[in-house]
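To illustrate this point, what follows is a protein record of this kind.

___
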Amino acid sequence: MLESFELEADAALPTTAHAELQDMVPSSVSVKRRQSILFVTSEIADYIKAGGLGEVSAALPRALRRQYDVRILIPGYRQVLSQIGPVEEIARLPASFGIPACGLGRGTTQDGLTVYVLLCPELYDRDGSPYVDGFGMDWSDNDIRFARLGLAAADIACGSGDPLWRADLMHLNDWPSGLASAYLAWRGQHIPTILTIHNLAYQGNFDRSRMSHLGIPDAAFQINGVEFYGKLSFLKAGIYYSSHITTVSSTYAQEITRPEFGCGLDGLLRTCAEQGRLDGIINGIDESWDPSRDPYLVSPFSAENWRGKRINADNVRENFGLALSNGPLFAVVSRLVHQKGVDLAISAAETIVSQGGQIAVIGQGEPRFESELQALASRHPGSVGVKIGYDEGDARRMYAGSDFLLMPSRFEPCGLSQMYAQRFGSLPIAHRTGGLADTIEDGINGFLFGEPSLGRFMDAIRRGLETFRSGSRLTAMRRAAMSRPHGWDRSASRYQEVYERACRTALA
């Protein structure tokens, strides 16, 4: 007689195939289907990224797929379709209100992760980033472009996208996917939804007159809905209608419930926290950030052999037009915007150079900061080098070659750069906020300062310079930084707890 046991079904099997498998085995055998997660994002580093969301969207689903059948939904930008390979159109999603019809394509990443792609050239076949044109201006139809994403997510979750698959839970990310949970609620569907806030400052706010074009019912335009200071807010909709809210560090989860960091949403977020619906889960970094085998580096190195770090430093100096030097090398790898404290880094540069230090900067952003940095490099040839733009290889070699990374961010939900730097033995000098406070131990694996002022920042830089002059302390701090846990396993476990809690709540 056959004993009862659980059979773990293959995650690649569609929902209907799981049912067929269940019919094929004796009743004493139970088939356990892994839960299906639809991960909805506006960027993924495999194909297109504008910031940390792209990195997280590439890494977190991969960390979760050991436990779940995770599939990604992303708009079919020109950059995505040119890189993803064969895409099979599996459904047509109808036009609704002012949102055009689109195709739903299905493709896979190189390592087999299923990606659903919205096929709508009129919305997504453009140059520029996911959000702005080549001049840095928001696309005028961003409300339609990302309402299309949210509506498609709701359709797929309800089973009207892929005929062989539907979601048990949706994981939304930032304002571009925020309407997905609202569309479900307005349909009376109770599928659990998690919204992760990667940066509260970006909210997707649009004029109230756009509601009818987006299919938003008039009754939803209120404080308990989509209304935000007279506008409609995609992010507020996501927060209000989702089952659970996460953000990308525990400190930031606390900060955004206060007026100074809450960007006008602190009251709603305080309510979420009081209801047990808000969690902070620190991001990780993927395994490619390994100085012993990173193909971008000109020479590998480890905490036991620093020779390769010096070789990378010399390469950075040559690449950025800096003089050969035995002094400290500071790196700035950042969007050049006010949030990142670029003005503080520019003001600190004179002292760094006067103390024998050098600075290499890569990034792009606000024109005023780009101009000021280029002027700084002109005033200090051989000591300051600036590249406007972004190149992955340059950035990785900067982390590998630098002694310190400057991160005077006024706020930082999580931050990945400090973890990249730590992994490559570069000590971050950062404001004690958000994820920086959660990942940097002051004087152990980096330096923290308490308020975003030039004086406090300079105090931390001076401590860094003192450490550089003390070879043994510098080595100890580098080793501590490199040994800090950086991977996604711990974060993925926390997300699993949140998913299970959201599913239990939905069933209650």
